[in-house]
Model the fold of this input.
Amino acid sequence: MAELRAYAALAGGQLRSVVSYRASFVVEMVTNLGSTALDVLTVLVLFSTTNAVAGFTLPEAILIAALSSCAFTLADFAVGNIDRLKTYVRAGTMDAVLVRPLSAMGQLLLMDLPFRKLLRLAVSASVLVVALVVNDLDWTPARVALLVVTPVAGAVFFGSIFVLSASLAFWWVDSGDLGSAFTYGGRDFTSYPVPVYSGWFRAVFAYALGFGFVAYQPALALLGRADPLGLPAWAGYVTPLVAVVAAAAAAAMWRAGIRQYRSTGS
Amino acid sequence: MDRLDARVLTISPSSPFRESVTTFGALAWSGFRRYATYRQATIAGSFTNVVFGFLRCYVLLAVAAAVAGGRPGGYDATQLATYVWVGQGLLSVVALWGWTELADRIRTGDVAADLLRPVPPVTSYLAADLGRAGHGMLTRFGPPLVVGLIFFPLYVPARWYTVPLFAVSVVLAVVASFACRFLVNATAYWLHDARGPIMLWMLSAGVLAGLYFPLRLLPDWLTVTLWVATPFPGLLQTPLDVLVERDGPALQVALVALQAVHCAVLLAVCAAVQRRAERKLVVQGG
Done:
């Protein structure tokens, strides 16, 4: 109970600090909303140049982009701020986090809870609703369940990617924006149908790293389309499994990183 | 004691032009060296540029393959690939994102030290930024271009003056990008916390400069409006269009001239804003 109160105090402090610069906070909130809308707009611009890109029509592409966006915004809201870890490791401020009797992860997340990102969730959810309306979907109980589970599983997956790429800072302080290649890069990858990509790049991102299962495969299952790349229909339903594997990897790496942390100084 | 005064030592009192060039050069060199210290971050950044290069390149090539005639926005496949890979290289030269130094110094009050210096803040920050861009050109421009060359057929310019014109266009893009960032940061003089305006800038700069998709994919009226009324396309899209020879020779040169006009206006606005701010600034802190 005392622990919960401590977490609540951390979050409350955050909230007070962001609303004390009210004009900036409002602008930040609006830009966050805009950035999510912009990702969808990019898909819209690219797919409206022609009838179908890589065999996918605009409504189908919107569904994939919406599923990806829901998963990403959810993960970014919950754990996206972990990417500030490299700043804490470099400056040694991580020490202060570790000496407190609360979980390091919990504190880091609540030390900078991104209230400004709240509206993003609303944007991606409404895009998903639009995508479900413009696509002619044949609803079955399995598909309804899939629709509910996919964004959550995708968010767990993206959250794991956030933690994995942030933990890199424990070993490589100057990793700079290397992590964005997988977090934001992963978001961009999952926003488009996988057949758009090709060669080893597709093999690595879609299958080895698992990004193909965040939005593309579930979208195929929802649409009742066969995968042009030949994966069986059940591949649309394995997202939770992929997410669990990713989360386990992230947890292991995070623990190893915390043990590895030696503070700073010369 | 009566010989002491508060004037700053001048480098060569007899020739003021040489003096200002030397000062500007020294500031630019310091900007260069500052970024040269982060070698590992340079490698990490290049890796990220390369990943995004693959992502954007595949998407645009898929669009090109699907469009009848294979020329979305008037680019063929090699032009699009070049657009993406050179664009990823230019991104860190032009540095659309991530400069909050001035805003931070205003918030903490450190900016007072800048005002004490004998060089106007706009000039000294511009010099340092050109040094940073020079470092970016040497280290960050090459890797995405090389990877692009290995994995995709790229466009080779046909006109002899395209590459020199591209170089001029890049310099103008860097100056325009600096001026925009300076103005965005300078809002901190009035707002104290410029995070909001900086985010707004990051958001609009990426899409309006043509990073996410070439602006020519938009309807013509919108493209022309953006190009003439805003400096954004001049930050990235213009140098890239110049390099891939998207337009005829006349328009190619005219686009760079337009960049120059935007640069001049932006720098004048920067100077004016800085003057207003200096009259109003109350340094915070005790």
User: Anything to note?
Assistant: The radius of gyration of chain B is 21 Å. The interface with chain A takes residues 38-42, 44-45, 47-48, 51-52, 54-56, 58-60, 62-63, 65-68, 72-73, 151, 191-197, 199-200, 202-203, 206-207, 212-213, 217-218 of chain B (CB under 8 Å).
